[in-house]
Specification:
The protein has 614 residues and is α/β, with parallel strands linked by helices. The chain contains 13 helices and 26 strands. The strands form four sheets. The protein has an eleven-stranded antiparallel sheet. An eight-stranded parallel sheet has the order 12-11-10-9-8-7-6-13. A five-stranded mixed sheet has the order 2-1-16-15-14. 25% of the residues lie in helices and 23% in strands. The protein has helices spanning 3-16, 97-100, 150-155, 160-171, 225-237, 274-292, 323-339, 355-360, 367-372, 388-409, 427-445, 466-469, 493-504, and strands at 50-52, 58-59, 73-74, 116-123, 126-136, 143-147, 181-186, 241-246, 298-300, 347-354, 375-379, 412-417, 449-454, 456-458, 472-474, 488-491, 510-515, 524-529, 534-541, 547-552, 556-558, 565-572, 579-586, 593-597, 601-608, 610-612. The protein has two domains: 14-44 and 141-504, TIM Barrel; 73-139 and 508-612, Sandwich (Immunoglobulin-like). The protein starts with a helix and ends with a strand.
Amino acid sequence: MAGVDGFVNGIREVGKSDRRSIHGSTEEVNDDYGRLRLEMAGGGSFGVGEVEEPGGRSRHGGTEEMNVGNGMLRPDMASAGVGGIGVGEVERPGGRSRHGSTEEVNADHGGLLPETEILTVCTPQGHARVRISPTRMGQTWRGWGTSLGWFANYIGKLPPDQLTHLLDLLFHPSKGLGLNLARYLIGGSFNPLLSPQFLTEACEAMAIPGYRVTASGPYDWSADSRQRRVLAGAIVRGVDEVEAVAYSPPWWMTVSGDTAGLSVGKTNLKKGYYLAYAGYLADVVAHFREQWNVTFSTLNPANEAMEGWWVRGNRQEGCNFNATELNMLVAHVVGTLKTRRILDRTGVAGFDSFAGRTLQNWEEFSPVVKSALSRINVHGYVPPPKNSTDARAYIEGKFGPLRKRAEALGKEVWVSEMGPLFVTGDDMAVTAFIARCIIQSVNILGASAWVFWQAINKESEADPSALNWGLFTIPYNRINNSTAPPLRVTLSRKYYMLQQFIQGAPKGSLPLNIEAANGCHHSIAAFFHPRRHLLSVFIVNQDAAEYNISLSISTFQVYDLAIPATVEVYRTSYNETGSLVSSANYEVVPSPFLVVAPGNSVTSVLISDVAVLH
């Protein structure tokens, strides 16, 4: 691909492809510093279009019959006869398009929400009164997304019909999740003599081509065509915000000549190259906008730079910067974008590190740099807790103070990367863990967007944890192999869980404040979408015992008396995959009513066609 036509043709190619849908992903990686990452290796051969669900069940595009009116919604919650989610179609549960569309919403309703209370069991030992505050909790929700990078570098080579399947699953608003955010990786390329690891099957997808491969050579705008092809298809399907990130400077700007790093804690960017690196990033950002009509909302010149684990010979790109060095780099990038009149369209985000690391080094960043940031990007990973009490203490000790600092600057906070790092267990255990992290990011960090790390992973019969990392798995072969293996997609329960969140908390929703004892704000979140008249509550139960939750929503009324309010309950568990477990219509909003959250489950309650009582 080269020039304007190159990028646009990529969009047309994907847009014109047959839009059948299927499902799948895997990932495992343990580098020398405990960092789990995607391992791109080969896979087997499977039937085209086959869909395998968690637990080994297999379907081929049909709609599974659901048990509706099964007592999960009580009392007086009679079945409305609503069927389940058709896996082959991946349609929005219940078929209610307003919950799942990617329309842009101006959610500033200009007022306060009245008080709503939830009486819930947050632990099997007792009840706790949970109050959804009358005020909106934070920023208007910007959406849900995924990093591209590695998986996009692989699937971008697939034939149009296979690529269409995968893009639909992730980005199509009715055939898939409808993700509206994408994170594009500006690659550093590599020198095969200095980085031979990127020639191996395990690492080749992690080697993202750069646009300038030598210090004296010209830009090659045909590079990275596979990732750009995926980005083009994502935009066609509804992605409305794209941010750019660079993990490493180009290899020829580095000390080691290896974009994987130098040594522990040591920066790999050559002295005197800060301004040159900022210029390279500005050139890429400008070319995307001027030639390919893609405007990045933000640019981040580093990724987990303060963690210090990027070393020569590692299996992925990365570059260490201490806080002082990162402060200088961000200042150069801001200055370059401003000088070139790019900053008014593409801001600079920082610092794409763990919350604890960002908080630890916060005072080392100058007030000028912090003020110049468009938003604060945080990686939502947390270290493995000894117990649930320790986990809550860590989250509140890191997320809470960081949120206060961002609010003091008037900055949004995004969880720009999150995955099942530091967690082990089966598919459902990992799913519940991720769901809990989402709720903690909303309630405690005050995040306004959430981005998954790598949505697609390689499948692996030998590694049972392969499904844990991606939202789904597919077979892989070598990138330079022109023959793609037959495509089979295996959905994890994370896919269905995330579908529940996207359905109930689409872009434009307002996170509602949770005030509770017993740590309930770690496991319950609520959103209200004023234009779609949708109130949603999410409950994560990681315990074996069920929770019985009494919802009181007396401060809401039916929005349109000609259309009854609908209460729908969806669930992902060992026995359910985003399933509609109960549905009922009401002319008067029911309050209170009981919802059962079984052990090891993620439950969402969607109450539609409601408005705030005034």
